[in-house]
Amino acid sequence: MSVASAPPTTKSSPVLTAAAQVAVPANLETPRTVLIGAHLFRANCVACHGAPGVASFVLGLTPAPPNLLAAGRRNDPTEVFLKIKGGVAGTAMPAFGDALPEQSLWSLAAFLHHSRGISASDFDALSAAKADASQEDR
Description:
The chain has helices at 14-19, 31-44, 46-49, 77-86, 102-114, 120-128, 131-135. By secondary structure, it is mainly α.
């Protein structure tokens, strides 16, 4: 049987199943939330995932960490939140659910959804702007 003629599966990924049970905060993509997410991304994610104008510092991870700010990424906020919170099985992506409060995880999800395709100069400006603002929500 070829893949094209195979019957559709009813299984869904654990992330998609869990996503159906998670309520997205109403104010998810406020400028402040995105700003906080930019600061958290620079501090916690750039080493592995890189950023516009900043190469990843890790080599040899299989699979390689994806460029989370690529213009073509979907970055569904709920799926991103769950992957950051619980990690990703079969990859080097650790769970941050015990290391960061949920509000910070949502800020990261908001930043990644809002900032797909961001330029290097805009990333630098956003992640450097009002650094003290992100400290209030950690």
